[in-house]
Hints:
alpha/beta, 3 strands
Amino acid sequence: MTRVGVIACGALALHVKAIARRRGWDVDVHPLPPELHNRPQLIAPAVADLAGELEGDYDRIVVA
Length: 64
């Protein structure tokens, strides 16, 4: 089975989890800190850092 990790903004993480559950998707959602909404220039680096941390744990990493 393919392991999928989803990186989501803090505001959407709960919604992404709910959608995945309703659709029967087996994914792990990893939220970014919600404070990043106030510092948008830090979002892309935070996504890249978290993706790097998760890289060995998942077959596929997606961003929501």
